[in-house]
Specification:
alpha+beta, 4-stranded antiparallel beta sheet, 24% strand
């Protein structure tokens, strides 16, 4: 049995790798911290698609509260 608390889960999320897409162009992988910095710098917008391993389909960044709430 391995005990994991919310902090470890949050740290694991921060290390996940995400791929971004706009139109037919894909970019990445990026960490959540990198994605937030790109959003803050207006290098990408919340209308970009995002995907990570385990997700059944692409989502808009704007539909991902765990990303949007941190910018």
């Amino acid at each position: 049995f391995i005990y994991t608390d919310g902090l470890n889960e949050a740290e694991n999320k921060e290390q996940e790798q995400y791929v971004l897409a706009a139109g037919t162009e894909q970019r990445g992988p990026f960490t959540l911290a990198q994605i937030r910095e790109l959003l803050k710098a207006d290098a990408i917008t919340p209308d970009f698609y995002i995907w990570t391993q385990g997700w059944p389909e692409w989502k808009y960044i704007k539909d991902c509260p765990h990303i949007i709430s941190m910018i």
